[in-house]
Amino acid sequence: MAFIGLRYPVFAPIASEPELAAPTYSKGVVLGKAVSADVKLEFNDESLYADDALAESETSFKSGTIEMGLDDISSENEAVVFGVTAEDATEEDGQKTVTYSASDTPPFGGLGFFKTRQKDGKKSYRAYWYLKTKFKLGDDSASTNGDKIEWQTPTVSGTIYKANNDVWREYTDFDTVEDAIAYLNKKAMITSGGA
Hints:
The protein is mainly beta.
């Protein structure tokens, strides 16, 4: 199987984390349009040796990181994902202000997106759901235009955790884009919108 493309990144803050159960979520958002997603996973890998030989080994999920590139992230979505303050535009100046404070606490939340899967010439759509993540702003850089345009897009950096039900990721395959989006909307408690 092979994958091409990346679409529809969504995030929903965790509303509650019942013991030994999957989290529940509050209303989520479509983060923007996906540019890239780089997931790196870390596992516990422990071995027990006895009588000069490997007797037991155990491998288990420890944590992960994700770097997600987006075309843009709105001030409203920054407030949801990073816990910053996005003040509405005032009548005086008509401008919205986003304020970052040292005391801002990003919420834990679920993250989802889908990739196009191709096998034997047939396309399907694999939607991923990471049950518990926490994001921080990625590095920021800017450069002037020279002989060619260089696009500058935001990156969000997150940590992937194991949820209370011992699950850290789920995925489901769908035959249509619409079904993949509907699945992610349901997971992220998004009642309208789409890509």
